[in-house]
UniProtKB/TrEMBL annotation:
HAMAP family listed in its UniProt record: GlmS (MF_00164)
UniProt KW Glycosyltransferase keyword: no
Catalytic activity reported: D-fructose 6-phosphate + L-glutamine = D-glucosamine 6-phosphate + L-glutamate
Protein name: Glutamine--fructose-6-phosphate aminotransferase [isomerizing]
Function text: Catalyzes the first step in hexosamine metabolism, converting fructose-6P into glucosamine-6P using glutamine as a nitrogen source.
GO CC field: cytosol
Enzyme Commission (EC) number: 2.6.1.16
Encoding gene (name): glmS
Glutamine amidotransferase type-2 domain boundaries: 2-215
Family annotation (InterPro entries): GATase_2_dom (IPR017932), GFAT (IPR005855), GFAT_N (IPR047084), GlmS/AgaS_SIS (IPR035466), GlmS/FrlB_SIS (IPR035490), Ntn_hydrolases_N (IPR029055), SIS_dom (IPR001347), SIS_dom_sf (IPR046348)
CDD domains cross-referenced by the UniProt entry: GFAT (cd00714), SIS_GlmS_GlmD_1 (cd05008), SIS_GlmS_GlmD_2 (cd05009)
Protein transport keyword on record: no
Localization terms from the record: Cytoplasm
């Protein structure tokens, strides 16, 4: 997710824009830029890297003007370069745009803009030229007409050199807030850049367009019908605003999952053909058919996400798939060859063990692809292709939304490979239809956060917890135990349900509770038996069960119901109660949730 700031008023715009960008740096900071109207022309300055590089650039000759737009980028399309930095311009620099979101059909739109000399790889530049194509003197109308052709998400602000008292903003899927001052207006991706100047704001809703001058703010829909808005008074402080009202980044990122999940899958599957459409694989269909083995290399949460990929590839593609924690892979003298496909899974794209494993796999001749969150990161650059998971900056040390998006991308890859071998179009369509229902089903679980908090508060008096799951829910149990241990410091471990009787059951007692996933799937009865073994030892049980399974209450002390979905998609849902349980346990214990002791967000050392 990127950060947008804009100002129209009587003050010099540059200080407002720069300070605003600094307050949005938490949203992404691989490049930044400003554009100000100075007289009858737009002056633009952009830089790669943090905001400091931009301020150094403008120090010698700061652009003047009292109307301007600014942007700090979290790259999604195109590398981290100055050419790809926003603002993007059209009409020979007379029109400038800043944008947060993903234009799904930007390639089609680009083809329709024949004759345009594109200078960047971004979807936003296409948007700028599309608005320019529709501009015939009315800026708001040009924006509305252009957006009618757009599929995807946007929060954007547009300025034009011939309109010195106008900014046009629009929102669909990416937030935009407008601060109301005396004879001036502030626009931003969230309230943080606006708070120092005014607490009176208007939140744009999806499908709305704002026409902003120094004296007035009018809002419309894309058909130019007026939309009435009410002014809200916000009482957040700076840090609350960065977290959009959530007490911690981790909780915000847990609740971001329905939205960022859609960013991950948008435009990356073909429902008609029942397959995935992940172009980054950089393999022909023939090369994909030749692959006879898949190895996932990753660390921590990413390795548990990778285990879902393993199940999916074995189930849908019918080839051996294995997960190797990267720190082991790199020293194990792994057997890989030119028919092995190695996926490196990493949120940061900088994890030293995973990077070393990538280099080892390449050295041995495997196809190596990345499934990474941070665009332009080392692992993204050193793999010969792959897919960005579009989770946006994940700031809490404990990974949540990145895990979900990694799983989503691996499911799409497994389907894409599977449809070249043994998956029927009907099965593919059924899986994709189930995938499209995931965001609403996630929300149904997130709505139980308070109930899960009461469970966490009840169970934090225990110093241990055993997580149990079977089949595709075993990696879910592993991820849940990692979440709990890394932020609450409660000792937690996970076992396959069937493995418990081979030792761990000795641990169980009334003071050693169990969190178990017993959703309706092929292993339900087996899991139920395991839970009954647990109960026979007097251990308390929290169950994750499928909505409608009333019998689950008989063998649980507490229960969280999750909506039913296809077995391969269960981790996208079943992990969320465990994320929330860990979060609330850590909060109840007064731990530093976003910055747990001894941990770093990215382990760039061995
Ligand atoms: C997850 O909650 C942990 N913070 C940690 O296990 C993390 O997943 C691991 O370090 C891998 O990081 P990466 O995804 O950035 O490579």
């Amino acid at each position: 997710m990127c950060g947008i700031v804009a100002y129209i008023g009587d003050k010099p715009a540059l200080p407002v824009l720069i300070q605003g960008l600094r307050r949005l740096e938490y949203r992404g900071y691989d490049s930044a830029g400003v554009a100000l109207l100075n007289g009858d022309s737009i002056e633009r300055v952009r830089s790669v890297g943090k905001i400091d590089f931009l301020t150094d650039k403008v120090k010698t000759r700061p652009p003047a003007g009292t109307l301007g737009i600014a942007h700090t980028r979290w790259a999604t399309h195109g590398g981290v370069t100055e050419e790809n930095a926003h603002p993007h311009v059209a009409l020979d620099g007379k029109l400038a745009v800043v944008h947060n979101g993903i234009i799904e059909n930007y390639r089609e739109l680009k083809e329709q803009l024949a004759g345009v000399n594109f200078v960047s790889q971004t979807d936003t530049e296409v948007l700028a030229h599309l608005i320019g194509r529709h501009y015939h003197g009315d800026l708001r109308s040009a924006v509305q007409q252009a957006l009618a052709h757009v599929r995807g998400t946007y929060g954007l602000v547009v300025m034009h050199a011939d309109h010195p008292d106008q900014l046009v903003a629009a929102r669909l899927g990416s937030p935009l807030v407008i601060g109301i001052g005396e004879g001036e207006h502030y626009l931003a991706s969230d309230a943080t850049p606006i708070l120092p100047y005014t607490k009176k704001v208007v939140f744009l809703e999806d499908g709305e367009v704002a026409d902003v001058s120094r004296a007035a703010l009018e809002t419309f829909n894309l058909k130019d019908e007026t939309v009435a808005k009410h002014v809200e008074e916000i009482d957040w402080d700076q840090t609350q605003a960065e977290k959009q009202g959530y007490p911690h980044f981790m909780l915000k990122e847990i609740f971001d999952q329905p939205t960022v999940f859609q960013d991950a899958v948008r435009g990356r599957y073909d429902l008609t053909e029942g397959t995935g459409r992940l172009g980054g694989i950089n393999l022909t269909e023939e090369e994909m058919r030749r692959i006879n083995r898949v190895v996932f290399i990753a660390c921590g949460t990413a390795s548990y996400a990778a285990m879902i990929g393993k199940y999916a590839f074995e189930r849908l593609v019918g080839i051996p798939a294995e997960v190797d924690v990267a720190s082991e892979f790199r020293y194990r003298d792994p057997v890989v060859d030119d028919r092995t496909l190695v996926f490196a899974i990493s949120q940061s794209g900088e994890t030293a063990d995973t990077l070393a494993a990538v280099r080892e796999a390449k050295r041995k001749g495997a196809f190596v692809r990345g499934i990474v969150n941070v665009v332009g990161s080392t692992i993204a650059r050193e793999t010969d292709g792959g897919t960005y998971i579009h989770a946006g900056p994940e700031l809490a040390v404990a990974s949540t939304k990145a895990y979900t998006n990694m799983v989503a991308i691996m499911l799409l890859y497994a389907l894409q490979f599977g449809r070249l071998r043994r998956v029927s179009i009907a099965t593919g369509q059924r899986l994709l239809s189930a995938l499209r229902e995931i965001p609403e089903k996630m929300k149904a679980i997130l709505a139980q956060s308070d109930e899960i908090r009461s469970m966490a508060e009840e169970y934090i008096r225990h110093r241990d917890m055993l997580f149990l799951g079977r089949g595709i829910n075993y990696p879910v149990a592993l991820e849940g135990s990692l979440k709990l241990k890394e932020i609450s410091y409660i000792h937690a471990e996970a076992y396959p349900g069937g493995e418990m009787k081979h030792g761990p059951i000795a641990l169980l007692s009334p003071d050693f509770p169990v969190m178990a996933i017993m959703t309706r799937n092929q292993l339900y009865d087996k899991m139920r038996s395991n839970i009954e073994e647990v109960r026979a030892r007097g251990a308390r049980v929290i169950l994750i069960a499928t909505v409608g399974d009333d019998r689950a209450r008989e063998i649980s002390d507490r229960i969280v119901y999750v909506p039913e979905t296809m077995e391969l998609l269960e981790p996208l849902l079943n992990t969320i109660p465990l994320q929330l349980f860990a979060y609330h346990a850590a909060v109840a214990l007064g731990k530093d949730v976003d910055r747990p002791r001894n941990l770093a967000k990215s382990v760039t050392v061995e």
